[in-house]
Amino acid sequence: MSISSPYASKPWLSAYAPGVPAEIDTVSQTLTDMIDASVATYGRSVALEFFGAETSYRTLGDQIARAAEGLRRMGVKKGDRVALVLPNCPQHVAAFYAILRLGAIVVEHNPLYTARELRHQFEDHRARFAIVWDKVYDTVAGFPADLELQRIVSVDITEALPLGKRLALKLPIPKARRLRAQLTETPQARRPYPWSKLVGHSRISRRAPRPGLDDTALLQYTSGTTGSPKGAILTHRNLRANAMQGEAWVPGLKAGEETFYGVLPLFHAYGMTLCLTFAVSIGARLVLFPKFDVGLVTDAARRTPPTFLPAVPPIYDQLARASERGTIDLSTVRFAISGAMSLPVATVDRWEEATGGLLVEGYGMTETSPVALGNPIGPSRRPGTVGVPFPSTEIRVVDPADPSVERPAGEAGELLLRGPQVFQGYWGRPGDTAATLLAGGWLRTGDIVTVSDDGFVSIVDRLKELIITGGFNVSPTEVEETLQSHPDVADAAVVGLVHAGGGEQVTAAVVPREGATFDAEALRDYCRLHLAAYKVPRRIIEVDDLPRSLIGKVLRREVRDRLVEKG
């Protein structure tokens, strides 16, 4: 029997920090309008910093316009998908907004993916154009002709370095050679089209179409709530709304004066919104790092101290320990927001003791652009919970077996979300979309939660069996299929086991084929050939059999329990 939602009155509003509104203003800007406004307002201010090289908002706007014109002449039209396979770098930011300027659709990719993983996504979205890191150019150029990739732009990220660092990379010494090999590689495949040529055009023609609020801006790949990776469709309205919600959530932000550290990858939904849209929308300086490294962050902090740091718990732990050793000063960080994985209370305590600032946890998913809940930035925060709904966001807690049935307050159930940041569905997957988006715009999260009387949400469990490691989603099925393709493996089950740091470790239970010798390290090596590093099982454990249901389905929960017992 259905009952009225106990959360319709939004009891969490009393926990909001002073000045945070219950609702955000109506979204009136596309992301293209947003970046144009920032360029006009903050033109002389620094928009991007990369190893000390600075790019002003005015210069960034010019690069975006030139790249857009280059793409237009290349044949990119409104509605076309353009793939980005880039680490964090200034070219990534310019390419992102240049694609949107034409009304085209950005498709983000992890540049550390294997060829098989990238090809799977390209086969799904069928983009005809790609802008890629020169280190992965040969991989993408090697895709079969039936993918119909018309043009691949190659990006050498060292071109964005300060002159002195570019010259240092050419020195004939081992350290310089190693660093250069990490940052760039000369493609061997067909002659690449360089980024420098793309931005060598004049500014964009006024004839080029511009996007509308409800046009698709981004396909963000996620394992979502149903297993295999799929493209979440996010519109300009979705992404702009989430940036506005983020701005409303953080009282005391100083437009044009903040310094955000981009240690999260921009190709990830969390890094994309907190850095590519939110930071730029308020005229912040975005300090970019191609990867997280304590030494790189320490060097940058000496030049440009951070004020806003979005990250994941392991990063906060490492930086807090560096602060305790006296190697980095984090006292300038006023705002720190953790997401993508569980935040241990011990990490909060360590960070706040080291910095004197607040560290709060939020909750979201790619399908919510991605942030939907957050702890208030103030004394009403509640460590150990994922906070309360953002402005203009509603929640329900329902029976997982029948989402039309509300659960009473305080009783565990599946979390449903609704708000302007909720996605439009999965690219080319109407069945998955229908299973995830319910009537009235409600999103099934697949997470089992409890909600306190005053609206604070605590995660109890996940209906979905995704593993969250280092802030990334790992589909157990994908890892299992890789292991099962090994000639020595008869069967495999993959689960996430919680470790002391608060995240999960990918762990595999493997049944060897009869007569085969079990070699865990050899299986890990095999996985490394086919999977990104974060998907490779940290532990592979030999078992005699796997628990199954009456219809033969492996019971991953029982597998997890058995592995926990084994220690």
Keywords for this entry:
GMP Synthetase, Chain A, domain 3, alpha/beta, ligase, globular, 2 domains, EC 6.2.1.3, Long-chain acyl-CoA synthetase, long-chain fatty acid-CoA ligase activity, 27 strands, ANL_N_sf, 567 residues
Task: Describe this entry's structure for a reader.
The protein has 567 residues and is α/β, with parallel strands linked by helices. The chain folds into two domains: 11-354 and 361-391, Rossmann fold; 467-566, ANL, C-terminal domain (GMP Synthetase, Chain A, domain 3, 2-Layer Sandwich), CATH 3.30.300.30. Helix content is 31%, strand content 24%. It is built from 17 helices and 27 strands. It has a seven-stranded mixed sheet, with helices on both faces. Strands 17, 18, 19, 20, 21 and 22 form a six-stranded antiparallel sheet that branches. Helix 12 crosses helix 13 (345-355). The longest helix is centred in the N-terminal third of the chain and has 18 residues, at 57-74. The radius of gyration is 23 Å and the shape is globular.
